[in-house]
Amino acid sequence: MPVRSAGQVEAGGMKRIAIAGVGLIGASFALALRQAGFRGELVGISSPRSIETGIKVGAISRGVALEEAAATADLIYLSQPIEAIVRTLSVLGPIARKDCLITDAGSTKTTIVETANRYVRMAQFLGGHPMAGKESRGAETADPDLFAGRPYVLTPTASAGDTGEFRQWLERIGARVIEMKPREHDETVAFTSHLPQLLSTALAATLANKEDGHISEVFGPGLIDMTRLALSAPEVWMSVLRTNRPAVNEALSAYAAMLAELQNKLNDDNLEQVFSVASTFSRQLRKKPFTGSTSG
Amino acid sequence: MPVRSAGQVEAGGMKRIAIAGVGLIGASFALALRQAGFRGELVGISSPRSIETGIKVGAISRGVALEEAAATADLIYLSQPIEAIVRTLSVLGPIARKDCLITDAGSTKTTIVETANRYVRMAQFLGGHPMAGKESRGAETADPDLFAGRPYVLTPTASAGDTGEFRQWLERIGARVIEMKPREHDETVAFTSHLPQLLSTALAATLANKEDGHISEVFGPGLIDMTRLALSAPEVWMSVLRTNRPAVNEALSAYAAMLAELQNKLNDDNLEQVFSVASTFSRQLRKKPFTGSTSG
Question: Mutate which of B217, B252, B295 to disrupt the A interface (most A C-beta within 10 Å)?
Answer without folding.
Answer: B217
